[in-house]
Every structure is written in structure tokens, then in C-alpha cells.
Amino acid sequence: MILNIHIQTHAAVTVFPFYLFKNGLSSLIDGAWGGSLLMSRRHRWKLDGTEAARSVTVNDGCLFPLQGQLRHGLMQNCNQMHACYLFQQDKHYDLSYDTGDKALECGRHVDIFKLWLMWRAKGTIGFEAQIDKCLELSEYLYNKIKDREGYEMVFDGKVCSRLQNIESEKLILVAPVIKARMMEYGTTMVSYQPQGDKVNFFRMVISNPAATFEDIDFLIEEIERLGQDL
Q: What Rg, from alpha-carbon coordinates, does the chain have?
């Protein structure tokens, strides 16, 4: 028997593959965004345990980032997963523009030639430096807002946050409104999503190699500016 596992925590990566292997089962790990950490000597320990899996996939369109090709329309009903954390139904624009849910792999088609060219241009050390920088910026953002007045960390250790001091029944509307204003002003854009009993919160993913600490500071202040009247 083979199990396909989408792993989101370090504890799960460490335990599950070895447990399955010990019991005669094979695991296929979907590394998704975090799988790229295998390229970093500083951070690859977070994926300890993956060596017991039969295979590990990495989404090179996220953290590298490799620009993929968009395919949509073919076998649309079969490919749609309706991932609520990606394709929210409460956006302020026409949802038909969310073409990612109309194609296999969320619209990102792996182009191995592009990956080869990027690898040739940057080298393994270049990829590693880029990944380390993104993680450094994420840690900087987390440390800036975890004790900042007006912000609330939704999950400890992850860059998921929302504004404080807002009535609970209105909290679900705050992130969509702020994101709509971000797009209207054209200053920045951050994903939001609900999770279980947690209503909409911002879920920050950093993958732009040109991002700076000043950009992170601007992002924090921009969220506050756009949400000050809510």
C-alpha cells in the first residue's frame, strides 16, 4: 500500500515516513512550498525524515520561484479541488478570474527546461541563498508583529496574523476588505484564509528574491493604514 501525504509540520515529517516504512507501507510526500528547504543547508533539518519516503515532490514555482505556464479548460471538472484557502468565495472581484482552480496542479505546469536554465544561472548556492533570505524575512516579519500592538498571531510560530480589537462577528470581513483595498491602491497583496474555527486571517508567504526588510516594514504599516477605520 502507498499513502500520499501532504505534510505541514516538522514533527509529522520526522515521524510518519519512518512509521509507515516500519509497518511495510510506502509514503509519497508532497513537499509543496516547504520542500524547497532541501536546497538549504541551514534549514533542511526541518525536513528530516523525508529520506524514509518513497518519493518527495517539490513545488519549484513557490519558493524558488520558477515561473510556470498556465493551463486551463481541459478536464476542468476533474481537476478542480475547490481549495478554500486559495480560492475564497468572498473576494471583491469576478471569481471567474481565479483560473488556477481550472487546471491540474493549480494551474502551474512544471517546465523542466526553465528549471534547468534557472539552475544554470543561479547555481545550487544561489538557490540556497535565495531560500535562506526568504526564511530570514519571514522570521523578521514574525518577530515584528508577534508583540506589536494591534496585531494578533493566529498560530504560534507561523506568519499568520490579523488585527486586534475588532468585534468577533465583524472579524471575518476584515481581511477581505483590507485585501480589496490593497489591490485598489496597487501597493501590495497578501493572501488570507479561514482555518477550522479561526475566521479569516492574513497568511503571508514570502518568495520574491528582491524583497527587503524595508518592504516588510511597509507591509505592516500598510495593513494598519488600510484597516484603521474598521
A: 19
